[in-house]
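User: I'm writing a short report section on ligand binding and want a predicted complex to refer to. Could you take this sequence and beta-L-fucopyranose and write out the structure as tokens? A short remark afterwards would be nice.
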Amino acid sequence: MKKLTTLILAVLLFTQCSSVPAPKKLEPTPSPRQLAWQEMEFYAFIHFSMNTFTDDEWGYGDKDPKLFNPTNLDCKQWARVCKEAGMKGIILTAKHHDGFCLWPTKTTDYSIKQSPWKNGKGDLVKELREACDEYGLKLGIYLSPWDRNNANYGTPAYIDIFRNQLRELLTNYGELFEVWFDGANGGDGYYGGARETRKIDRKTFYDWPNTYKIVRELQPNACLFSDAGPDVRWVGTEEGFANKTNWSTLRRDEVWPGWPHYVQLRSGHEDGNYWVPAEVNTSIRPGWFYHEREDNMVKSLPQLMDIYYHSVGRNGTFLLNLPVDRRGLIHPIDEKNLIALGKQIKEDFENNLVSSYAEITASEVRGNNERYNPKQLLDNNIDTYWATNDNVVNASFTITFDEPKTFNRILLQEDIKLGQRVKKFHVEIQKDGKWNTVADETTIGYKRILRIPSTTTTKVKVVIDDAKASIVLSTFGLYDAPPMLVEPKLFRTQDGKVYIIAPDQESKIYYTLDGTNPVENTNRIEYTAPFTLVKKAIVRAVIENPKTSKFSPVAHRKFDIPSTNWKLIGRNVKDFKNIINGQSHNFGQIKKNKKGMIIDLGKTYTIDGFRYLPIQNRWSMNFIKKYAFYISMDGKRWGNPVLKGAFDNIRNHPIEQTVTGANRKGRYIKFVPIETIDNGKAASIASFDILTK
Ligand code: FUL
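Assistant: Sure. The structure tokens for the complex follow:
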């Protein structure tokens, strides 16, 4: 009897399901290889080659292969760090624009074969393959179409060479998940390392369709990346974001590698007739290759989290570059920040609050069928979904909790196997019986994550306002992401106000002014707004996660006399206010002559020295190398410099420089940049302080 009932039920269920067909695909839709790629979400780029050893970004291909000589190269370290950070694969620059090959290619001598590394017997691509296999990571390759070493570049013979290089990489190193063709592909082709140009037409020279065929034939599961796909598109910026509106569809036939309208790639094309999703590529440092001078410019955890939310959170993937250093290892600062990123991503999405819902309802369910019930949004399965009837492009679902829930992240996914549909949606929460909108957005796609200020409620409603076809949503999540426990930022502006900045609004900030540790001192002060500090003091500050009582590392800054009453004398300085506003993101400039920067401090102090922060900008090298510092009572008689010297390692390490030992009374100071690194006409200064006794 029991068996019979089960059978009848099963038949009923079957007929019910089959009587309501699934929504039809809305073309274009992703191929299986594109789907597998999209689900990787977060993976690494590694730029490591000759440029690492010559301190270049774009080498000319004229450097001696003997310079390539990592002392401790260890691909397993790369793989271990990437794995620990939650990344799913690694793409290596097998050849960059300078033409130096990291595998023993038969196509050119300009390769590791000629280098002292492993006596020319090494194969970096092979080593990385093995390391990836050991750590369960996928492997991808970057092969620069542009080749500034190859004497045949710019002639048809080069295309054969390039394709042979590709064939070697596609046949000898196992399965690849992505093949990366850079849009920076010449046009002003240097060749033979000769620094002469041989012009190419970027649209036709490479004959891309026939090159793509080779990839399809030898690696059918690999996604082809370029500005134009065909499988994966560049996102149109290297700054680390996709636009909020991000279509995975593109009018691909209009686009080619090197396309001048690349800004459109940040959003894709709503009416695109091909599926070409966006990959967000950026570097953890300002440069793609390693430069010692960028050791203090590694992106911080809050910056990296922003990129995560602006890539994976905006229907893209996140390709983060790690410039491996001259030893052949991921630098410890990069490793630390990357692992912190992986940990934070995990913590942000640790606990999906929708798992304890009381009820979920929808304004409409396709054919009133269980299979399309909004409960499918909560089952942690991206293959099941809530759907509306054909042509219904406006509908909502509402989730109710027994108890109020607090959250600051909203996650939504469409089932992209059926195409990207949603054009516009918003989210409401119920407060005191009234609905309030907390987010108003456009596209969703594979994944959309919204960061909103912390909100507490028992009812949340997601309203799809418009879509290209009936709605098909697979996942819904609400999360309460914890504050990031990083050192807070500390600075004092010209009006003497001290700011302490935490990356999250929800975190609590505490500080002390008496030199004690704010974690231990129960008399610490809670920071709620900037405060005025005119006396000399050390501010120590910390961020607390109020829920777990966990603290960040302690930040500290020694503040001396404020710059409130300082006056610039003369006209030798541009943007003086930027120099004395205590912040590092902008800068001023001192002309490089004997006049220097003269400041009237407003009253007499016993001056001991100064603090100078060089410009913190990737492209400028007008750091001060040699300086002279004078003190005067009247601003007229200066005598000899009280401090004079050189910042020896500033080229490689442009961090804040402190010089003391003057111990002289005065009201005026003069700071003269005698020599700059770039020998330019000015020295750029991000910030400058006076230190007193
Ligand atoms: C750019 C290149 O020119 C850079 O050197 C780097 O390889 C980056 C990923 O792509 O277009």
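A remark for your report: DSSP finds ten helices and 35 strands in the chain. The domain at 489-559 is CATH 2.60.40.10 (Immunoglobulin-like).
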